[in-house]
Queue: 4 jobs
Job 1
Amino acid sequence: MNKACAEFIGTFTLVLFGCGSAVIAGDVVGVLGISFAFGLALIAMAYGIGPVSGCHINPAVSLGVLIAGRMSVSDFVSYVIAQCLGGIAGAGVLYLIVSGKLAGHDLATAGLGQNGWGAGYLGEYGLMSAFVFEVVATFLFLIAILGSTQNGAPAMLAGLAIGLTLVVIHIVGIQVTGVSVNPARSLGPAVFAGGQALSQLWLFFVAPCIGAAVAGLVFRSRLLAAEA
């Protein structure tokens, strides 16, 4: 239960502060600010809960770790449940906060940091662009995670490396999909935003899981193993 609790808190934090930076402060901090909010939240949790659960806070990460042979199926199931619940809870608290704005917060127009693609969404990229970005970005994200946490890597620097990788991914991809690379991060805001966010949610489960699975296979095959 301590691992599941850690994953819940970590995912809660990522969604609240990451999506919160976009919803509450996006006009002030811009793409760079939002990107660093996601990355810094991940770095904080990596050192805060990493010793307990490894700080996956992302079902795609847990899938990659499972396929790489670094966790059990039972842990995988409990992690994913905790991550999804944490993502929903984080989005719920964010919704409560923005709902208290005196001028009001219209979910239909202002949103809740949900992911998406197509006409009317940020850079208005199409389905193919969104799918390719999420697969490739998640694959590279998992390469950074699995590589920096393997035997022989400088373990104390892993959280920093992983968090900064997430920053770079957001800088490039916010205009494409808002950046998911994390089904739980996408699920939370979509539950409250509804509509298009829910109808497009499938991509933010399928594409990240494909990218993560391929990365997991790369490390399971020891193609990128650090040790002899």
Job 2
Amino acid sequence: MAKHMPRKDIRRIGNERVSILVNLSREAVKEGKDERARRYVELARAVCGKAQTEMPGDFRYCKKCLLPLVPGTNCTVRLTGGKIVSSCSCGNLWRMPYLKEQRK
């Protein structure tokens, strides 16, 4: 009978695999291979779901088309009226406030 693996080991292995996939997706976007980059993000999300972990905090991707966001390449970032407005090449927009930075 197979032995059960501890939860922390599953999460550690999952995080290692997700970090590899995230780096591969960033490289694929820089090389212009968007479909390959999308596939890497799909796989990373599947691993995160299975290992019950979260995506890395510094990794941004479009929730609509699953393309990793690289400002200046496939994403535009604008600062307007206390908000950060980001738009993907697919047309998806999202806004985040930056009030803490304005107060300083």
Job 3
Amino acid sequence: MNIIESGISFRGLSNRSRTTRIILHHAAKVTCSVQDIQRWHLENGWAGIGYHFFVRKDGNIYRGRPENTVGAHVTGANADSIGICFEGNYEAEASMPQAQVTAGKELVAYLKNKYRINTVKAHRDVGASSCPGRHFPFNEIAGAAASNVTPTPTPAPTPTPSAQGSDSVAELQAECNRQGFSAQKVDGIAGPITLAGCPTVKTGAKGNITKWIQNKLNSLGYNCGAADGIFGQNTKNAVISFQRAKGLSTDGIVGPRTWSKLLGLS
């Protein structure tokens, strides 16, 4: 079992004095990354990602909040628990990929052994929530027997644009660097440097930055159609709708002010 060190930074944390249980969650998002969750939780005003671990559908496990610190994943139940989040929306998705199930079981088994605990709860068991969803294989993952497997820490890979497309900030940062628009740190956290590295994009543009914009707009409910990396009329219409909703000039061009809104900076 590998645990990928995400390299995420935090704005101030307190240590947990005891660990009596593990609490399982889903992200309620079909596709997302640990950097996405970091960004969302920072936008909530938190110190950073509230979960201690994040398990992706491909079976990769990422470290979130430092394991010995108090999490921010269940109101009233953070002081004595470790939070594990699974990529996906298992209220809607009917099944979990086997690689993700296996990784989740291995992680739970390791934590049970490390902390000499057996209690594993779903978020819904300790808070007012349907998380981790009705199709989440809770009994299989939570029932994993304690194991003394030793995890291997792995440095986080340099993010690269996904063939499936993604709206993660890290992927945008990496692509802007690759195309020579910036030379910024790929940390998944949007800020002024990320904004400054985003080029103006308009009708006729092609490539992964356009695809990122399309995926982002689609995820926000502004329909571009297929994220094909081609800035055509459907993409322009979606940009105009987004600009109108955000009180921007409706020119259909993704310039600094539109980028700022897409990145959640203003």
Job 4
Amino acid sequence: MRKYEVMYIIRPDIEQEAVQAAVEKFQGIISNGGGEITKHEVMGKRRLAYEIKKFRDGTFILVNFSATPEVVAEFERIMKISDEAIRYLITLDVA
């Protein structure tokens, strides 16, 4: 299993309970696929550098995890079709 880091931004116009549900859904994709989450940090609502999908701010979440490439591909597929996430970036953690 490889180590990865993902940062994603949740839309600012949804309620806090919906943000928590979305975070749990995305963590479930990693956990149910056999991955292991090593660090999870909700960084809170922050202003974006530029407008994304007509939003000027969003809730930032940072997750470090270990998983197989298949789990990462499934996570990325779900992120693409998710309405809650407006942007995401998955990187291979080399440190």
